[in-house]
Amino acid sequence: MLRNSIHLADDGQRSQVSTSAFRPTHAEVNLAALRANLATIASLAAPARVVAVVKADAYGHGLEAVASALEAEGVAGFGVALAEEGLELRRLGIRAPILVLNGVYGRYHREVLEARLVPVVYDLDQVEAFEMAARDSCVEVHLNLATGMSRLGVPWREVESFLNALSRHRRCIISGLMTHLAAADSDFELTRVQIARFQRVLAHLKAMGHRPRLIHVANTAGTLLHPHLRFNWVRVGGGLYGVVPPGWESHFLPTMRIRSEVIAIRELRAGDTVGYDATYRCTRPSRIATVPMGYGDGLPRSLSNRGRVLIRAHRCPIVGLVSMDLVMVDVTEVPKVRVGDEVVFLGEQHHDHRREAIGLSEIAAWAGTIPYDLLTGISRRVPRVYVNQSC
Ligand SMILES: Cc1ncc(COP(=O)(O)O)c(C=O)c1O
To answer: Could you tell me the CA-to-CA distances from 305 to 213, 292, 347 in Å, in that order?
Structure first.
């Protein structure tokens, strides 16, 4: 059994979820949707192969279940931000190549090599640390170039002096070259400039005798919107979890649904207030439902008096301030709401003949953030429930 997660039988009956002995607030992760998204992106990217980015607990979906499902589908490898995430993948039994995208901090270079993690480097201190850790053996690294993000990577203007200094490190083999796109979905001119810089460095590297086998640039938006940037690997995170640029949504499936249940209903009068600081005051007789999910679970506090949830397939407004464990919802307009009714924060709900859905982008717009922030913000307190585990 995974830590803080629940696995359902393959029929994935939702009714089983709500009979949990504990709080009915769950994030349902649909592994069939994950596999379908991988298949879509893999067929678009081919012949380039997909490196699945599973940092931050697989974008909040749960590292073990997601990585196991994706490895079974034959991804080229995994991308993580931190060495400790890579070590965790090895502990979980993942055998595919693992790229540590953000470099290795601290002192665990030897452990990183022993676990066959592939370090991404961007300064000479890192190269030296890995050479020391490798003792007499050669060490394979991927080189990160900063071509426009100005975050990590060897700054493109300094690459020549970096490569000259690197030539003294004979046991360091550059087996891959990467850069990260800053605005693949929003600034095509910057993307073009980034690629021009990248290509110049690639040519220079080859002229110096390096033979990087694995060239990777594209994230989800790069893969979908700039086919010429696929090279031989693409590093895809968002697309696996159904987060794609506008216009591509119909080709991908949502992978997470967040649900809970009504635990109390209060009949209020005009003038009554709701929640901390009394930021909501009823203007009419109102039915207010209390739902056990709050900012301690990753429900953004910025949804206070702004967001919506689904009950009986109706959109119901969040009223008052979201508190740490609870949120209140106005159900006055929805007939017959009862304690125990399902509440959906994210995803679809069906009731009688109605169907309604709330998507990640919609919540992100209400909350003034982006879908990735929402997904990775769902806290450990919310059990991940896996549905459709096998093909
Ligand atoms: C270096 C790097 N490559 C690839 C990705 C995957 O990006 P996306 O989730 O947009 O596909 C990320 C994620 O931020 C990243 O930091």
So the answer is: 53, 17, 20
Q: How far is the CA of 237 from the centre of ligand 1 (A)?
A: 6
Ligand 1 centroid to residue 83 C-alpha, Å:
16
Ligand 1 shell residues, CB under 6 Å: 53, 79, 101, 180, 219-220, 235-239
Which position among 55, 59, 122, 280 bears the catalytic label? 55
Question: Angle, nearest 10°, between helix axes 83-91 and 63-72?
Answer: 70
Per the structure, the count of domains in the chain is: 2
Which pLDDT score is estimated for 107?
Answer: 84
- 37, 70, 274 from 81: Cα distances, Å: 22, 18, 41
On whether residue 3 sits in a domain, the answer given is: no
Tell me if 120 sits within 8 A of 104, measured CB to CB: no
Amino acid, single-letter form, for residue 359: G
Closest atom of ligand 1 to 240 CA is: 11
Q: In 211-320, which ranges are continuous DSSP H helix?
A: 220-225
Residue 280 is among the residues annotated as catalytic for this protein = no
At 80-131, the pLDDT tens digits run: 999 999 999 999 999 999 999 998 988 899 999 999 999 999 999 999 999 9
Alpha-carbon dihedral 91, 97, 98, 103, rounded to 10 degrees: 130
CB contact burial 8-32 (16+ within 10 A = b; e otherwise): beeebeeeebeeeeebbbbbbbbbb
pTM across the whole model? 0.93
Would you call 55 a catalytic residue per the annotation?
yes
- Give the CATH number, domain containing residue 351: 2.40.37.10
Distance CA 255, CA 240 (A): 8
Residue 231 belongs to domain with CATH number: 3.20.20.10
What domain range is 302 assigned to? 256-387
Residue 17 lies in a domain: no
Is residue 183 domain-shared with residue 322, that is, in the same domain? Answer: no
56 Cα–ligand 1 center, Å: 11
